What we know:
Distance between the termini: 35 Å
Strand order of the largest sheet: 2-1-3-4-5
Oligomer: single chain
Order of helices and strands: EHEHEHEHEHEEEEEHEEEEEH
Shape: globular
Strand content: 25-35%
Structural class: alpha/beta
Number of strands: 15
Largest sheet: 5 strands, parallel
Radius of gyration: 20 Å
Number of helices: 7
Amino acid sequence: MKALIVDDERLARTELKRLLNPFKDIKVVGEAVNAGDAIEKIDQLKPDLLFLDIQMPGKSGFELLEELDTVPTVIFTTAYDEYALKAFEYNALDYLLKPIEPIRLEETINKLVEKSRKKSVAESDKPIFEESDQVFVKDGERCWFVKLEKIRLFESEGNYVRIYFENNKPLILRTLNYLDERLDSKTFFRANRKHIVNLKWIDTIEPWLNGGLLVKFKDGQKVEVSRRQAIKFKDMLSL
């Protein structure tokens, strides 16, 4: 499992690398000193895991995560305990207080390895949903059988996803990453951190801020394609 350490303190990075050395399942592939540096190295190194400090010069660890379209597994490392609740709002695997205790780190790594093992077992049998497939959607007392081709947009709301089809927008207890791994990439595209769009529902595309794109659906709804995803989007559609 490839790990990136993001921390502005050199001694903290060195100590964490030393503590991680006995764990052969974890390979530290790089270090970053701030959010901007981390974004570049995440794009370059494609880590599976971030050891992420929260308070850094410039943007915080939380602000860094807000800029990522897809987020690796996150373990926060910080000297401050007041961010613990907020950390888990970002679906962090764990929250380690500095100075990091070896026993506490071992507990976290064991949790990580077990989670990775279960994910590998699950993914070996995971289905890929195609646009012609019909799925069952339940939101409170209301239920639908809906074909995926009729769903124009999936929008993340924490551990839930809002589904847009016809005049309905129910919530389901899934993450956007879960759906991204299972939806057919020929039809569904991860536009940014919060949205997956159905390509067949797009009506117009126009340039947008910071090198991104703005897509407009046939019903008038609009979604931004982030700068990094816009590059993939153009390549895929040969724009």
